[in-house]
Fold this sequence. Notes:
By secondary structure, the protein is α/β, with parallel strands linked by helices. 45% of the residues lie in helices and 15% in strands. The protein has 16 helices and 13 strands.
Amino acid sequence: MKLLYLAPHKIWPLTSGNRLRNYHLARQLAARGSVTLVEMCYPGEQASRPPDDCRFEQIISLDKCVGYTAGKLFRGMLGPTPLTLLNYFEPRLASQLAIILERGQFNAMHLGGFHLSTYLSVGEAASMRHTILADWHNIESELMKRYSETTRNWARRLIASRTATLLERSELRLLERCRTHTVASERERTKLLSRNPSATVRVIPNGVDARYFSPAEIAKVPWNAGASTLNRSMLFVGSMDYHANIDAVSWFASDVWPEIARKHSDLKFVVAGRDPAPEVQKLASDRILVTGTIEDVRPYYRSALAVVVPLRVGSGTRLKILEAMAAEVPIISTKLGAEGLDVTDNVHLLIADTGPDLIAAMDQLRSSPGTRSRLAREARALVTRRYDWSVVGEELYAVYRDLMKSP
């Protein structure tokens, strides 16, 4: 197999869930075939330099223009192409991609996210229509619809609602045109098949490097300045410029944390993630630590009593939960936060959707070392068996084997 893997962003460093999924899936395929990675970089970004053992044939960086503009916003509202797709498509990049496909003589193409669906025609023109795989990191229309239903800003609600409608139409077109699709959960597979029962949709879950996040490996990592000052903490991990994460930590800090802080005077709430938005930065206090961008999150797992995932909006599956499971840190999550993962309440984690339930779950973990040990042990066993990237990579390679053999 000679594969072109197209990513809508830099592949390295691994600072977001999208980068994690694309990098590890591409790396697993590169261990089993020839993979050329094509990434898109914003102005000022340097080309990715991942570790030497990633085994890519080459990494080609395409330079994007600026992101959202007033013109794109206007066109996105009118349709038919939604704003989120307009932001990723540029005719100049399409021409460059066509040249790469022609010179490389690839026999398969991987679209690393729905946002790249506007480049499907480039692959079709290169006579690769039947060997293009579209990987859906999320169902974007669902994510945008949920956002429109929760935001209090009327202008954002209007734009999000309109964008959700256009996204759903674009998703349907992709389901009709592209032969093979992969999603991160069975729930998402069922949802897409309800729209187009004839589509081929396979589940390729998000994963984790179970060895890298194992307690044994974490113990080898030197403390950093922030984590070394902590004793036991409630930890949230995620990109802090993402609206769903901003909503989650803001709600938790205002409605849930004060009572937990009162009952457990030695605990701190740690928000670990890149580019914290202004409303997140304002949460910082003597009991709430906002780290900003960090090179290695593992020391924070070492000092955490529990990982909390109080998500109320969003879509897809949470790599932050898989990391915590691998690190043997107990997890408290809303149902939506754990959505798409094959986990069971009170077996692999504790599910809590309301403020009082989150407080009660924390009380339970704090008072019961046996519960903490049991949840950590079962979670680690599940993530090693089902969600390690090596397991996920073999499943994706099997999809490509079927794709290449089909007439």
